[in-house]
């Protein structure tokens, strides 16, 4: 399994990643252990646009945040989604 | 058989009697009922006067991949399950041109379970808990669209909505699509899954449902003197219809022909049928004429007969006036309950099997025939019947009347 090597992953990032991985597994049936920060939703995890909308909706519900449509379009990797949650918490 | 004939080459169903056509048919022949006591939470929650229904015998979600099932309302799930059975049965697969494959799947109500579930989530937990798939799951064209996606149909996908006539109307539209050569093969029928607290309460408020809560299996009893209303059921029935020339070219078997269709409207009342049966008789007459037959040729009617006090008699008046008093009747809702938008399609399948096997299933629970019926109704046990033509009719709230004439292949 590949991981980001540039920066150490914080405990908070790990917590968010674990929750996102569970959401992705539930909706797109991608095993949670395949979900890591550098994985691209479409190209690596083979997630279609309908599933992305569902993942976004579940992310909003889980983390109590709102994702604008422009933000959704810019979510390319799982790491982008983790950053979005971190930014919303800041 | 002429090249313009329309033949039935595939059957699929999921009903309160079984998860496929054969289990459903065998239970119908045995005169068994799919009606049972409902243990759903909403029965207590709303203190419903009606505590019985005819739920699907097999949860359609279990017949679909989990990822597919969770994106579909139960109504669309049932439609897709039945359509995949029918498509498999027709052995059409990849040997047909997708641009020449059509779909017509009707529903009475559509994704009402989704609508109610999501309304509750929105009210209780807020916007963020609502599914982004709410719209495609609740729309009444959802079952048709999902069947189209499942089989890759590109000639046109349609979803007639005419209450309890929807499933039969879908077959009428499929017949027209084939007759006008818009398609070579059309996957058509109806689906319904509306056993919810709100729909049960709504039909109960309209005083249409049987209150025989203490004896569920005997609650749906078409034409019986002690009938007291219909029983709400859920299900799906799908037929593969095909131009005979096309079926022959690919070596497909034909169960029967859909020889003619007739449609009319009462313009009488939003829920009650015209008591004179005139509108219904016009639909039946048109279905026989468009098949190139005479009334005397029709030996059997698979009737609508929902087991309501007011609805069952006008239909028999219509049958006598359009066909005469010779056809042998059966009332399939005694066994199935009322599948609303799926009813006409499931009953069309039963009609096809009657022609194919020369046997009429009994009208379950018919013990004492209402003397006003004055027709020969099969009850108690199945009856062998040698006839080349049969009619099935369906009528919906709104005064929609549909009749279909099937003949032996």
Keyword list:
heterodimer, A: 90 residues, mainly alpha, Non-ribosomal Peptide Synthetase Peptidyl Carrier Protein, Chain A, 56% helix, 0% strand, globular, B: 409 residues, alpha/beta, Peroxisomal Thiolase, Chain A, domain 1, 2 domains, eleven-stranded mixed beta sheet, two-stranded antiparallel ribbon, 14 helices, 15 strands
How would you sum up this structure, described in words?
The complex is a heterodimer of chains A (90) and B (409). Chain A is an all-alpha fold and 90 residues long. Chain A is 56% helix and 0% strand. Chain A has helices at 11-28, 49-63, 69-73, 78-89. In chain A, helix 1 (11-28) packs across helix 2 and helix 1 (11-28) packs across helix 4. The termini of chain A are far apart. The model of chain A has no long low-confidence stretch (mean pLDDT 90). An eleven-stranded mixed sheet of chain B has the order 5-4-6-7-1-8-15-14-9-10-12, sandwiched between helices. In chain B, strand 14 (389-396) and strand 15 form a beta hairpin. In chain B, helix 8 (166-179) crosses helix 14. At the A-B interface, helix 2 of A face loops of B.
In short:
The complex is a heterodimer of chains A (about 90) and B (about 400). Chain A is an all-alpha fold.
Strand-pairing-aware structural class of chain A: mainly alpha
Q: Based on CA inertia axes, which overall geometry of chain B fits?
A: globular
Low-confidence stretches of chain A: none
Question: Residue share in helices of chain A?
Answer: 55-70%
Note poorly predicted spans of chain B.
none
H/E topology pattern of chain B = EHEHEHHEHHHEHEHEHEHEHEHHEEEEE
CATH architecture of chain A: Orthogonal Bundle
**SSE order of chain A, as H and E?**
HHHH
